[in-house]
Amino acid sequence: MASIVPQSRHDMDMAYSVESYRGGAVSSMAREDLEKQRNMMSMQEARWVGVRKKVPGMSGIPGTKQKTRSQQSPRFQSRFESGYLDMEDPYMKKINEMNTDMKEKFQQKECYRFVPAQLHLQRPKAVHMQDIKCCCGEILSEHKIMKESHGTFEKTHAFEQLVSPEFHELMARDGMDEPPKKIPEPQKPWDGKNDKVVRKLTTTSFGKINFENVEHAGGKKPAKYVRVSDDTDVVHLLELMKKHWRMMEPKQPDLVISVVGGAKNFKLDGRMRDTFSSGLIKAAKTTSAWLISSGFNMGIMKSVGQAVRQGQSFNWDNDRMVHVLRCIGIAPWGYVKDRKFLENTEERSRRNEAINYRTSNVILHDSPVPLNPDHTHFIFVDDGLRNRYGGVSGVRARLEQKISQPESEGGLGIPLVLVVVEGGTDSIHDASESLKQKIPVVVCAGTGRAADILKFAYKYTKTSGSDKKMTQEQEKKLDQKILDAYGKTWKDDERAKNIGNIKKKVQECCECTDLMHIFHMNKHEDLDLAILSVLLKARKGSDEQQRLSQLKLALNWDRVDIAQEEIFREDVLWSTGTLHDVLTEALKKNKVQFVELILRQGIVMKEYLTVQVMVELYENIPSYVGKVMHRLTGKTLNETDKNKTGGKTFVDIENIRDLLFKLLDKYDTMEELLVPLDRDTEEAAVNPKLRHFQRPYKMLLTWALLLKYQEMAKLFWELGDEPITSALVATRIFQNMAKYLPKHESHLQEGFEELKKEFEGLATNVLNACHMVDPDKAMMIVERKSPCFNEMSCLQIAASANDTKFLSSPTCFSSLNMKWKHGILFTLPKMFLCIIFPPYIIFGLEILNLDVGKNDGNNGTGNWCQKIRAWVQKIAIFYSSPLSKFAHGMVAYAVFLIAHSYMVLVDFKRYEVTPLEWVMVIWVFSFFIDEIHTFIAFPSPTFWSKIRDWYGFLKWLDVINFILAFVAFIVHIASPHHFNVTKVLYCVNSIIFYLRIMKIYIAHGQLGPKMFMIRRMLDELRMFVMVMVVFLLAYGIASQGLLYKTRSPTWRILKDIIYFPYWQLFGEIFLEEIDTEDSCTAGADNCRTSHWLVYFLLAGYLMVGNILLLNLLIAIFSHVFEAVDKNSQEIWKYQMYFMVNEYEKKTALVPPASLLEHFYLAVMWVVKHTCSGKRRKDEQTWGPRHLEYLQLFEKEMMMNCLRDMKSMEMSGIDMTVHKLQKRVDELTKLIEDEVVVDTMPNHPWKQWIDELVKAAPEEGLEPDGRPQSAKLVQIAEVEEEDKEKKHKKKKKKKEKKRKREREQSEERQGKGDNLNNLNIIEAPKPEFEKQLFKKTERGLVPTLPSDDSETDNVSPLYQKQQMDRYASSQQKLSPLPSRRQAEGGVARAEPVRMPVLSDSDELSPRELRKRKKKKKKQQMRFSKTESD
Question: What average pLDDT does this structure show over 1208-1230?
Fold first, then answer.
């Protein structure tokens, strides 16, 4: 924990003294105590220190930590001081525990007997006496007992104890003297295993390393280290890593990658380095893996460090910064350069201070090596030896084995993979030991030495019966490879033995080929995929648990392709419930493709999803959901449950249900969401957490929507019921999440808005697809009351979510039009004709789907009854249609406005209420009752949703207007002498009544959007006025203050401040109002006198107001107009939804006659609720069969829509470019693989040679592999003679053709043509000829490539292509060499001559003569070649 240190005394946290507080702070705590307080605070607590200490009477210490200090006197004791001073610092407590464990469990080794080593064994060679090294590898002065000695006496005593008596005289010589040529043999040899020679001491080297000469662009954190002996119990190391280094937090790794390979003389460059780094980083980040290497700044360890630096980042957990990539270096202590700086002191370890260490890129031969600064942890293994590499392999092997062991056996149960990159003999030994421990190995072929040796042996080791062997020829080549890699330093008598030992280890490795994977560094492959492949091979088996382990690996790697091909095979059966845990993990990690793949394996979602699973899915719920939940429901996270879950965020499902209820206005109760107990499992009856959900995909959809898992939400949208309704529910959730998020989280709001548009588009596209197939069924879908989402229709949800695009779709508008007209086919003139002449309703109107009953044939009475019934139905349908209600209401409202205007202008009496006034009040009252009825009947699920959806600005204005009208009437009756008040209120009523006409305009297709545009402009005007007031008041107050020297307080001042500046904006300057008054006397009060500054202020004010602000307002209005006009039709159709629903719920009688119908409805409501008993809910229009049919139709159209969208996406220009680019990459990869990669050993020329060997088994082969049998010539003689005859005929034809061409060329030259610039050149032979043929004494013979040559890397397909190309370039050259040609010689191909036109212009006669001579020489040379 980093301490928070104040920068100055003003930053100190001051505890306020209660008795002496007078508006300032009195410090009553010592500086050391305050420092202790700050160090013990968490970062969240320290953040609020500055806020708390500014509040009078409060300390900066959190209230939860406050308690009284008993050490202080009550008089000077502050009740706000914290109990931190009485507590032990938890951070220092952990440091002390770690120091104690380090000293108790870990030891180091030191040499306590100095025996000089022979000079020829010392590296580097000793030049002076002081350079002579002990057999342990350390010089005399660097031994621990000598370094700790101070003074002459102590040093002499230490020298006598340390150096053997027989070497006292030798080692007592001056340090700069030359060493003797030979050092005598000791009486008792130096034995490192003897406890008296090499003693174990308590370790003193542990803590943190700060690489002070290395800077990281992304910040750096000190590395942790410890020095242990080579016989340390690895259990203590694991305990250190888990408890003190906390390497299992915040997440346990899913993999450990151990890298071994080349050291000082190895370096990865170019493409290999990029391949290695990218693959290693991807593998480590995907699985939170640990990386293990030797930790030095050289060779493959440096490459690992570079890869870690590229991909390193940090996890932030309150006060702790954690590396994402953990790289552990296990290095020999004696081989670390400048290791003396890593020895810690008691004081420094107590304070846990980091040790400064300087690394270097300089690597010297036979010298210690510096550490790599990109490793995060170091374990230094001390075997007592110095300046030599060794002692690490045992500790590293035991540690890796313990990590990979199952937890039941005391290990960590983490899979481990060994990666071999180049390397010496120790790398082969490590690979062999790892394979014995069933640890898989990845060999990076192409890097050299150990890696290539293992690759060669792996390739040519064949299984014969139960054994795996190599042929004798391949064994010889393996011996040669081993000798080439390591034999440079071997003596002649050691070669055979060393080769045998190494080959034995290699053969042991090849016995476990199922645990090995060869990764070609030059191929287009990924190292992470190779690691995953070898892990799957290692865990391959028929056991279900092994397959489950493989599936988890593939899930961590996010390789759904491998899981589908290797794990979910057709012959594999999974027992019930086996995949449930993996499915939960895939859901939590948002692995959509894995979820889809697992669901295909036959998982029944109703059996899988329980309350416990949903709680687990909501564990890592984002914080923004909690903010919205607190704002809407007032509920917060349960701290008790949070502590029980180990610090994970815990949300009760009931709280989520409450949140969804607030977001959607209506949601199921918990009992409605869950399967009834009588239909659930027995376990669910015992444990409520095991209860299942009735609609699991609905629950998972809302979970994915709240967590913003976009692709996951789409998946469950496809799998769930009612895709159109579900998509609209998603838009509603996203809209409210964006609405109720804090304003400062605008990035989240923008994300939710984008998701809302996407799901609205999905719903609209599916609905349009339904409309294209069957418009009637599409309208049924949008009108259907959804049984899945609480009987809410698509239109209701879309309107509440402000989905204008969906509501403006053809299907929705057709549904609204049908509801608006009730199926009546008529035009506007016909409608007015029906209003003026009602009988036209019976004879002139046409109505769709009019039910007039069956015709009774010749029964005249029956016909009349049917006609009367039809007439009654027409009348009822006409007068109950919203359009008819709207038209009648518009006519009646026009009459009301005329009457109200007449009352205000003419009929109003001062001291009496006229009959017309009574009629107007009753009419206004009928408006008020009608509004209340419409509000109650409006189709919104809750009271507050009705207010939100229906009550806009005009509705609230109507309510205020009705209240003003009633107040005016009451005032007129109760107090006639206040008739002026009544008249004013009535005039205000008339204004608002005329403004209500704008609501009628909404029904018009062109005026409707204009009304919305006016409303938007009024909103912008309100913001503009707030800006304008600032300039208006600034100018008004300043000008009036300058014009009047002294002034009495009157209301006229406010008028002058606001009135004149306001009208000056519109051009009324009032210049006379800024001049001196004529009647003004000097020095009088309230006297206006001119001031020169006022004129400048007026000029500036008019410039800002008239030019800047008004033009700004015009620009704002223009922007609003363009934005609204672009979507005018969508806006109008969206507004029409509310108007249609409003007039559908209105009574057939218009005000004031509607009071009669309202009275009837009120009486019926009372009767229904008092006499009929239980209240019935509105029943669903369609039955279960209809709903199922509509749902199947909807799902089918959804799939068609998704297929169309996918086909459009695939045919788009971006996808076409992507396909072309991918194809080019594939072709490039194919070409490179055919040229570079290793292929089958069945080379075409090898097959041909095998046939030759079979044809002459009694003959041997030449050393180069060619057959020497004479019978081969006889076998090919007949075939060769036929080919030679054909070749001679072709040759004669070519000669005649060339002769003819030469003659024609000479003729053209004689005529002076410019064709004399033609050159005849010999076509270059393709490079492939040099590879597949070689020239010998017997002619051209096929090259026999060795197994290690580059031509062995050429695929048969590539060889065939090159051979065909070569044959075509030779223009009917003789075929490939026959057997006789291989033995004796090959008929030479005719050189191909082709004319090439040079780029030069006409040549001079002299140049032409030179050209002719040159051509003759070429012809003579050519004819001589033919004769030869």
Answer: 73
